[in-house]
Amino acid sequence: MSIDRRRFLCRGAALSAGLLLAPGWRAWAQSAPMLDPAARQARAVRYVEQASAAQDDPAYRAGRRCANCDFFSAGQRCSLFPEHRVSPDGWCMSWTSE
User: Fold this and answer.
1) 57-83: per-residue pLDDT in tens?
2) Are 71 and 93 in contact (CB under 8 A)?
3) CATH number (domain holding residue 73)
4) 23 in the same domain as 39
5) What is the DSSP string of 18-45?
6) Mean of the pLDDT values across residues 13-30?
7) Which residues form the High potential iron-sulfur proteins family profile domain (predicted)?
8) Exposed/middle/buried for residue 46 (C-beta within 10 Å: 0-12, 13-18, 19+)
């Protein structure tokens, strides 16, 4: 496998930029407000901050929570609520996993 000099330098520059921006990304992710369970979009998917509070919901299954959902990512972010953070111990009816 041969990597030419230009490709090597471009990849190195991209990696360096990523490393420099990583702390800023974490700060940005933590600066977003927590999702209010009373908000319209949260109520639409029956979001709760503690999965145990959803035990009476027919869509709930034990062990499912935001932290092990495919929509959840670092910084308490959920792709369903890009403007907000969610509780890792929370749950909503859109929970999914491969």
Assistant:
1) 999 999 999 999 999 998 899 999 999
2) no
3) 4.10.490.10
4) no
5) HHHHHHHHHHHHHHSPBPPTTSHHHHHT
6) 56
7) 29-98
8) middle
> Do 25 and 68 sit in the same domain of this protein?
no
With residues binned 3-state (H G I as helix, E B as strand, rest as coil), the percentages for the chain, rounded to 5, are 40, 10, 50
pLDDT at res. 98 = 77
> In terms of C-beta density within 10 A (0-12 exposed, 13-18 middle, 19 or more buried), how is residue 32 classed?
middle
Where residue 34 falls among pLDDT bands split at 50, 70, 90? very high
Domain ranges, residue 19: 1-31
3-state secondary structure of 17: helix
Provide the domain count of the chain: 2
- 41 to each of 8, 17, 94, how far by Cα in Å? 45, 35, 12
Q: For residue 9, give the H/E element and its range.
A: helix 5-31
